[in-house]
Design a protein that fits this description.
The chain is mostly helical. Helix content is about 80%, strand content about 0%.
Length: about 30
């Protein structure tokens, strides 16, 4: 359970950090 939650939290943090970069960055994609 704890490993599963740790993986979920890390993925959520990565997504939260990644989305603003997409918003601010040049829209090449």
């Amino acid at each position: 359970m704890t490993k599963k939650w740790a993986v979920c939290l890390s993925i959520i943090i990565l997504v939260i950090n990644f989305i603003p970069n997409l918003m601010q960055g040049p829209k090449v994609l």
